[in-house]
Amino acid sequence: HLSKRLTAVAQYVPQGARLADIGSDHAYLPASLIINHRINFAIAGEVAKGPFENEKKEIRQLGLEKVLIPRLADGLAAVTADDGIDTVTIAGMGGSLIAKILDEGQDRLSGVKKLILQPNVGENRVREWLMSHQYQIQNEQILEEDHHIYEIIVAEPTVCPVRYGEKELLFGPLLLEQTSAIFNAKWQAELKRCEKTVVQMRQAKTIPEDHLMTMQKKINLIKEVLPDDD
Ligand code: SAM
């Protein structure tokens, strides 16, 4: 049984995909997709020994050894050309780590038609990487589970990606076109956090002026995007 977050990630995996789930931990996501006959081959990549043992145990218990392959490797090094991977999921880590994994594994992405990414924070870092590496964002989703708000970004390679500005990169070009209470709640909370940080920075006095400016700029962007509350 998958969490609401991973269920949402799973829905973007195409029927019959050959999937690499990077940072898979218990391999819940690929295991569920296989059990539900959505896919019949996946790699579960893990860089850390503990989670790697978790996925091996899970795969053995489910009897999926032939179709779900655990690999102890850093990022996309888990993928080889022979695997014929066409879809990659990377979920439950920070956006800068996701961008780093994609960046370092670019040579493994040549046959990949779809990236399904679920950063916990730093979503703008993921969008920046996608835009500057010829990917087009196809879908975005925001959801809440256990008082956490998560975003999912789905992208496909393209010859001519749309160029996004700062605002689209921060909030998500497709999320900006939807109206959602969860989106508003996320940015309301972020606005409060930024405003508090600015007050603290002013008090500290040692904070470089450009940090303050960046924060102020972000505050202005959030205010622009949030609906007026009066
Ligand atoms: N993907 C699962 C999910 O969304 O529920 C597990 C998320 S867990 C919080 C993040 C996992 O990513 C950890 O098990 C960690 O070991 C793994 N990880 C972190 N950096 C990695 C890397 N460079 N390559 C592969 N796995 C990595």
Automatic annotation (TrEMBL):
Pfam families assigned to the protein according to its UniProt record, in alphabetical order: TrmK
Gene3D superfamilies per the UniProt record, alphabetical: 1.10.287.1890, Vaccinia Virus protein VP39
Top-level lineage group: Bacteria
Cross-referenced InterPro entries: SAM-dependent_MTases_sf, TrmK
PANTHER family for this protein: TRNA (ADENINE(22)-N(1))-METHYLTRANSFERASE (PTHR38451)
Protein name: tRNA (Adenine-N(1))-methyltransferase
